[in-house]
């Protein structure tokens, strides 16, 4: 059986996927179908590591950004080598990741995608640039195939094969047409051009807009919440034993998951510590 | 025998000879001439009317050009254009399957036979009953299964119309039917073999065009190195996990006077899946380095890789050190294992084997340190590799690297600009 290829896709295409083909047999791969018909079970990504977070003792979540958004990387106890690298490197950093798709589908409508790493390596900038170029030219082929397919009265795999597209591309595009109602090919064309422009010297001087606008807002929100928790920790610090977790939960009005996240983040930053289990104090 | 007589014969046989041919002829003429019923329908009705079983009619006989994908019952008269065998193992029992190309006056079709009751050779004419078709490379393929009967017909009972499709070398697939190729003979060796007591000349070599290269075997047709030829009527078989072009005096071979440039542009790994390739160039990124890479030890007798000083074949031996790399090269369309030999491994690491022996010693004898150095050098790094690619069902693709080079990634800006220009930016 041929090994599954490591697809080159930009994060925006990967993250906008809404369809997932689950393996029906053990040891067979599952696939994410992107709107342009990449049928992905493995990916190869080179981007900028912008954030690393300990979710639990065993799971590390990291963000690897490209020019279109960011991939989420989830390394758990089955990926000890990757996890160790992620825990040790400083951000920002150019990072290469080979990994398998990971799908979290809380309900019918929503699908969260991440990558579970098989390999992680700190690399030089030129390798990221090569990845962007390589990914752009692969994207171009899928855009071409999708445009041709959308022109056909009845798009079929054979018709695409006859036009010279490969079997994987042809099958993927036909599958995507079946799953996605509207496919905005031009959006991806703009994305392709943007990504390539960032490789030109005159654009490079301007630097990258990282993280993207959307994420900056998210970050600020996080900042505000952290401020709030810090204040609460001071207020609730009775008898100098530290603020109790229960009090923080009640007064902050946050859900436990969010609160955990903030507490972990503050501990990481060295703002607070946990003198007793479930008690938090400012350093 | 004209058509009418043939139909009468069919009905006569379906009725087991119980009804006189004259009676059948009168019936048939009536249905066809007076009632204008289609011939197949008329035959069924007559057999049924005269007390027979219409299913006994050889009504499923088809011509090759009529065959489609997914036909359940197919009868066929055809000539064997090529036949090859391959051994496989099921439940520990070794079996032989056959594959090749069949032809009739309307065209050709590839076939697979899981079992053959009679021995078939190239040129035999056969009657095949109750075969079926399935999809193979987007076209129909005839399958001779366990319920299929194959019987020999007299020689030349079937005339073959050779549908020959012009192809580029990169497109050649085993069992694809007859092809026409224009290529340059890059290398050739002559040898003599004896087939059924008859001495024959065989020319083995390599032919290339602007898309790639392929090994060939020519039976009794002399070809010279440097010739550029149009070979019309060759076929492709799988040989040692790679496609091979085969032709003999029945092919039309004409010299052509064009300058042939041999391809230097890489092929996609996907295009090699299921067939392999000879001396192909591939461009991709190394995404994994496998166990057994780096410093290894071999049995001095058989070269087997050992993890202790015991060889399963030769017992207690003094293992000799060697270096190699088993890495996964991936171009986004597919992936394959690449095997680098000692010299290439030394080139990648920029150290000699003696250096690495010393490094391992300094690290308390743990050879993993060398593999880690290889990972550091190779993972995520783009390269071009050239070599023979073998396709094995169980393991996928493996390239024995003949030569490689790391890609120059410093001019990406220029490439990006070029691509943007193409996009009309």
List keywords for this structure.
A: 283 residues; OB fold (Dihydrolipoamide Acetyltransferase, E2P); Arc Repressor Mutant, subunit A; six-stranded mixed β-sheet; B: 425 residues; 4 domains; five-stranded mixed beta barrel; 7 helices
Which radius of gyration of chain A do the C-alpha atoms yield?
A: 22 Å
Biggest β-sheet description of chain A: 6 strands, mixed
Reading off the top of the CATH hierarchy, the class of the largest domain in chain A is best stated as: Mainly Beta
Query: Which CATH architecture of the largest domain in chain B would you pick?
Result: Beta Barrel
Helix content of chain B: 10-25%
Mean pLDDT of chain B: 87
CATH architecture of the largest domain in chain A: Beta Barrel
Output mean pLDDT of chain A: 86
Write down the CATH topology of the largest domain in chain B.
Answer: OB fold (Dihydrolipoamide Acetyltransferase, E2P)
Task: Report a brief summary of the structure.
Chain A has helices at 11-15, 80-88, 125-151, 157-162, 167-179, 185-197, 201-204, 213-235, 245-252, 256-269; strands spanning 6-7, 19-21, 31-33, 39-40, 42-54, 60-66, 69-75, 93-104, 112-122, 243-244, 272-273, 279-282. By secondary structure, chain A is α+β, with helices and mostly antiparallel strands.
Structure in words:
The complex is a heterodimer of chains A (283) and B (425). Chain A has three domains: 6-124, Nucleic acid-binding proteins (OB fold (Dihydrolipoamide Acetyltransferase, E2P), Beta Barrel), CATH 2.40.50; 130-204; 213-282, Arc Repressor Mutant, subunit A. Helix content of chain A is 43%, strand content 24%. Chain A has ten helices and twelve strands. In chain A, the strands form three sheets. In chain A, strands 1, 5, 6, 7, 8 and 9 form a six-stranded mixed beta sheet that branches. Chain A has a three-stranded antiparallel beta sheet with strand order 2-3-4. Chain B folds into four domains: 3-56; 64-153, Beta Barrel (OB fold (Dihydrolipoamide Acetyltransferase, E2P)), CATH 2.40.50.140; 166-255, Nucleic acid-binding proteins (OB fold (Dihydrolipoamide Acetyltransferase, E2P)); 270-406, Nucleic acid-binding proteins (OB fold (Dihydrolipoamide Acetyltransferase, E2P), Beta Barrel), CATH 2.40.50. Chain B is elongated. In chain B, strand 4 (125-136) and strand 5 (139-144) form a beta hairpin. Chain B is of the alpha+beta class. Chain B starts with a helix and ends with a helix. Classes of the chains: A alpha+beta (283), B alpha+beta (425). The interface between A and B is large, with 42 and 39 residues.
């Amino acid at each position: 059986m041929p090994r599954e290829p490591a697809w080159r896709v930009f994060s925006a295409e990967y993250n906008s996927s809404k369809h997932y083909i689950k393996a029906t047999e053990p040891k067979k791969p599952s696939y994410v179908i992107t709107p342009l018909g990449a049928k992905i079970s493995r990916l190869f990504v080179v981007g900028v590591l912008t954030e690393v977070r300990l979710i639990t003792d065993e799971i590390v979540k990291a963000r690897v950004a490209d020019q279109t958004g960011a991939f989420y990387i989830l390394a758990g106890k089955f990926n000890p080598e990757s996890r160790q690298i992620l825990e040790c490197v400083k951000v920002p950093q150019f990072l290469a990741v080979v990994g398998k798709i990971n799908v979290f589908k809380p309900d019918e409508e929503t699908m969260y995608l991440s990558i579970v790493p098989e390999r992680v390596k700190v690399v030089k900038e030129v390798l990221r640039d090569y990845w962007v170029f390589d990914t752009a030219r692969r994207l171009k082929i899928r855009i071409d195939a999708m445009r041709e397919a959308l022109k056909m009265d009845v798009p079929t795999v054979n018709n695409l094969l006859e036009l010279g597209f490969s079997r994987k591309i042809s099958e993927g595009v036909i599958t995507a047409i079946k799953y996605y109602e509207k496919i905005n090919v031009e959006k991806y064309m703009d994305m392709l051009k943007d990504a390539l422009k960032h490789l030109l010297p005159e654009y490079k001087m301007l630097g990258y807009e990282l993280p993207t606008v959307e994420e900056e807002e998210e970050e600020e929100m996080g900042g505000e919440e952290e401020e709030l928790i810090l204040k609460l920790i001071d207020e609730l610090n009775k008898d100098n034993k530290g603020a109790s977790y229960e009090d923080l939960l009640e007064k902050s009005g946050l859900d436990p998951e969010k609160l955990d996240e903030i507490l972990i983040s503050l501990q990481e930053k060295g703002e607070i510590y946990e003198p007793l289990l479930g008690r938090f104090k400012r350093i | 025998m004209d058509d009418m007589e043939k139909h009468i014969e069919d009905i006569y046989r379906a009725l087991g000879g119980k009804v006189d041919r004259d009676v059948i002829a009168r019936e048939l003429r009536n249905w066809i001439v007076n009632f204008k019923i289609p011939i197949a329908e008329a035959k069924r009705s007559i057999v049924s009317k005269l007390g027979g079983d219409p299913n006994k009619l050889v009504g499923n006989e088809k011509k090759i050009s009529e065959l489609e994908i997914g036909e359940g019952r197919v009868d066929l008269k055809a000539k064997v254009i090529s036949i090859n065998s391959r051994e496989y193992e099921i439940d520990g029992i070794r079996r032989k399957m056959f594959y090749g190309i069949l032809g009739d006056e309307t065209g050709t079709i590839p076939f697979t036979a899981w079992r053959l009751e009679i021995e078939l050779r190239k040129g035999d004419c056969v009657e095949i009953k109750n075969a079926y078709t399935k999809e193979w490379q987007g076209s129909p393929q005839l399958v001779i299964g366990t319920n299929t009967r194959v019987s020999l017909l007299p020689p030349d009972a079937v005339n073959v119309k050779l549908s020959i499709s012009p192809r580029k070398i990169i497109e050649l697939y085993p069992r694809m039917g007859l092809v026409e190729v224009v290529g340059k003979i890059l290398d050739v060796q002559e040898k003599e073999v004896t087939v059924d007591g008859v001495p024959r000349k065989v020319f083995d070599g390599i032919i290339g065009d602007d898309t790639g290269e392929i090994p060939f075997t020519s039976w009794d047709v002399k070809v010279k190195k440097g010739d550029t030829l149009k070979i019309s009527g060759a076929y492709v078989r799988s040989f040692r996990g790679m496609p091979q072009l085969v032709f003999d005096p029945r092919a039309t071979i004409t010299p052509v006077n064009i300058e042939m440039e041999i391809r230097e542009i890489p092929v996609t790994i996907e295009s090699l899946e299921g067939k392999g390739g000879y001396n192909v160039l591939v461009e991709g990124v190394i995404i994994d380095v496998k166990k057994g890479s780096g410093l290894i030890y071999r049995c001095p007798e058989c070269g087997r890789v050992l993890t202790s000083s015991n060889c399963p074949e030769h017992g207690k031996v003094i293992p000799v050190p060697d270096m190699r790399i088993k890495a996964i090269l991936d171009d986004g369309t597919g992936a394959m294992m690449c095997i680098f030999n000692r010299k290439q491994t030394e080139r990648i690491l920029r150290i000699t084997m003696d250096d690495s022996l010393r490094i391992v010693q300094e690290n308390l004898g743990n050879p993993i340190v060398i593999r880690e150095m290889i990972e550091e050098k190779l993972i995520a790094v783009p390269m071009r590799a050239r070599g023979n690619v073998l396709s094995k069902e169980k393991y996928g693709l493996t390239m024995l690297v003949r030569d490689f080079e790391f890609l120059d990634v410093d001019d990406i800006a220029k490439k990006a600009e070029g691509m943007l220009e193409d996009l009309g930016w």
